[in-house]
Fold this protein.
Amino acid sequence: MDLLENYKKAWENQPKDTNKLSSAAIYKLAKSKSSSIVKWIFIIGILEFIILNSAYFFVDMEAAYLEYQKLGLYNFVFYSQFFAYAIIIYFLFQFYNNYKKISVSDSTKVLMKKIIKTRRSVKNYVIFNLGYMALIMLIVIIAEINLKIDDINLNQMLLVILLSLVVCLLALGCLLLFYQLLYGFLLKKLKRNYKELAKLDDFN
Amino acid sequence: MQKDLETNFLADFDANQNIAHKICRLYTTNQSAHNDLFQEITIQVWKNYPKFRGDSKFSTWMYRVALNTAISLYRKSTRQIKTQDFDAVSFKIKATDYDDTEELQLKALYKAVHQLNDIEKALIFLYLEDKPYKEISETLGISSVNARVKMNRAKEKLKNILNP
């Protein structure tokens, strides 16, 4: 007889009443708050939106707009914001949709696919935000240099470019790191599991 | 309406809560993690209960929800301490049906299964529960053939751990 068949018998005979909960206890548990990964991905996505966008409240926008006007970028910044917000709203809608569609009553593979998709949309969202920030920074730097091109010499100009680039890269790097830490931790296990499942289909 | 739903849920869940406990024992190694996972499974079964149409048996549906929760929704298991304090969740076996060999086998089995990955655990669990391949493949979302291939590997791995 197969070795495992013996263990299967022991499995079947394991006592049933350990840890058994009363209906009242089950009712209480069922109504408690979930701490599932999907929920956290959704919450983190929303938090990221709030944190990235609340930066506007801490920056004096009046002064910033005046500065943009001086650089001749007012129109660009003003209109590109509409464009950016349209995309951000699209992403938020997608987050919500992903979250709603994820269901544990799907098969394991479908469920994991949906979770990975959710993750991908959060990732794209962050990439978009970083990209948009980088683009604005770059254009401001170029406009700034363009404005002062007659007042400064080449060395000063190179220094300004270098410093601005370093500051931009640091800011972007910090955000990226923050993002990696957050999701890397949440999704390491899932990614591994998904790979395991995906491998199954490669065999055929 | 809501009251009916709650009553039915409690009856169904209560009759099958052993499924959840067994999965918790396989996927966690200490009592507090066990309780956490059990809570999450209870929440998920309740939240998805209105979607349960009854075209399959409740227990079949619950296997899926509970396993999916253990595999993909449960957050804490990666931070668990790896020690096998199985005795903390050991069974209070009544003197009358006390069987030393089976108890030892059961302990060895749990200890071995803890060394498998999440997907292998699910396969072995469904094997131990005597589920047909059709149900296993539907639960995991892979073809029957693949379920067989993967099951044989998981069983081989488990045998090697049990009997090196």
